[in-house]
């Protein structure tokens, strides 16, 4: 049977991809960042997931930049996923290889569990997927060392799915993973957040203190962390702070009691409080 081996949360800031792609991860500021992500790369090398399910939000790359289609939840069903062209050409990073058998199983299991999920048979993945993979696997890889299944959450247009809904989707995803009959090691990544606002009067807002306290809750009191309202996230952590729901979905996949294996913050990275966390179930 497939086994869940851990949950990882990480911000997905495009600047990090640009700095890595242009070999500019240099100087004191970026060296602190580079050192801070090393334990996550080591965790990946040690634990070797066969598949990473990457929970992310698409930033207008697939469903129409003018938001023709606004989709709460969707799953990648494809054989492969190319890096999306987000206006500067495609990132020169590997194409993600999918796992269609596991995607089909997850789609079926989620639908039977009453989560209506859009199934995308063609999907380019934007910085919400490619930047976390570069963070976790390195900048010089010829191919990603695991298969990838993208699971997207629509947070760039209102209304957005609540933390509670995302947490419950995580629980349903856990059932799907553990009922897949092949022996695969699966890690779930939740990308995005934490505090940031990219436009409007409060552009540049960062609230690292709130983020730290909320992460403590996410680890130890997930039922409280998931019930933070979207209005509170937006008020305390900025409009894009609502990307924290992807971390909540990842947390929903894990047991209620977890070990926090690693946490790192570096602030600001671009407009964001860069945050990284690794969780493992206790047994
Ligand atoms: C930034 C952060 C994001 O989450 C994103 O999707 C785009 C940009 C930023 O801080 O620059
Ligand atoms: Fe984002």
The amount of helix comes to 25-40%
Q: What characterizes the major β-sheet?
A: 8 strands, mixed
* Oligomer status: single chain
- Computed CA radius of gyration, to the nearest angstrom: 17 Å
Distance between the termini: 16 Å
- DSSP strand count: 10
| Strand order, sheet with most strands | 6-3-7-2-8-1-10-9
Outline the structure in words.
The mean pLDDT is 97. The chain is globular, with a radius of gyration of 17 Å. Helices cover 37% and strands 22% of the residues. 47% of the residues are buried. By secondary structure, the chain is an alpha/beta fold. 3,4-dihydroxybenzoic acid binds next to helix 1. The site of fe (iii) ion has 5 residues, from loops.
Give a quick set of tags describing it:
283 residues, alpha/beta, two-stranded antiparallel sheet, globular
Write the layout of secondary structure elements.
Blueprint: E1 3-10, H1 14-21, H2 27-47, E2 51-56, E3 73-76, E4 80-81, E5 96-97, H3 100-112, E6 118-120, H4 127-137, E7 147-153, H5 163-178, E8 185-191, H6 208-220, H7 222-225, H8 230-237, H9 244-253, E9 258-269, E10 272-281
Parallel strand pairs: 1-8, 2-7, 2-8, 3-6
Antiparallel strand pairs: 1-10, 3-7, 4-5, 9-10
Helix pairs in contact: 1-4, 3-5, 5-9
The protein binds 3,4-dihydroxybenzoic acid (DHB) and fe (iii) ion.
3,4-dihydroxybenzoic acid binds at residues 12-15, 59, 192, 196, 198, 240, 243, 270-272.
Short description:
The protein has 283 residues and is an alpha/beta fold. The protein is 37% helix and 22% strand.
């Amino acid at each position: 049977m497939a086994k869940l081996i851990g949950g990882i949360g990480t911000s997905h800031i495009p600047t990090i991809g640009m700095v890595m792609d242009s070999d500019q991860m240099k100087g004191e500021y970026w060296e602190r960042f580079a050192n801070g992500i090393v334990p996550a790369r080591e965790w990946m090398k040690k634990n070797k997931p066969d598949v990473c399910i990457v929970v992310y939000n698409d930033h207008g790359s697939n469903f129409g930049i003018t938001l023709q289609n606004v989709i709460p939840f969707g799953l990648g069903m494809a054989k492969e996923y190319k890096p999306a062209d987000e206006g500067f050409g495609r990132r020169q990073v590997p194409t993600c290889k999918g796992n269609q058998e596991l995607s089909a199983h997850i789609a079926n299991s989620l639908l039977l569990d009453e989560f209506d999920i859009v199934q995308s048979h063609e999907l380019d993945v934007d910085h919400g997927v490619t930047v976390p993979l570069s963070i976790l696997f390195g900048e010089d890889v010829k191919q990603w060392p695991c298969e990838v299944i993208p699971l997207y959450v629509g947070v760039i247009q209102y209304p957005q799915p609540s933390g509670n809904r995302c947490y419950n989707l995580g629980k349903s995803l856990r059932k799907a993973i553990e009922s897949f009959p092949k022996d695969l090691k699966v890690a779930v990544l939740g990308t995005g957040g934490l505090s940031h606002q990219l436009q409007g009067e409060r552009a540049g807002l960062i609230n690292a203190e709130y983020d730290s306290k909320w992460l403590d809750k996410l680890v130890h009191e997930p039922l409280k962390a998931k019930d933070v309202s979207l209005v509170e996230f937006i008020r305390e952590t900025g409009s894009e702070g609502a990307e924290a729901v992807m971390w909540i979905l990842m947390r929903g996949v894990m047991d209620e009691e977890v070990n926090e294996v690693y946490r790192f913050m570096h602030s600001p990275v671009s407009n964001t409080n860069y945050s990284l966390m690794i969780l493992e179930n206790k047994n």
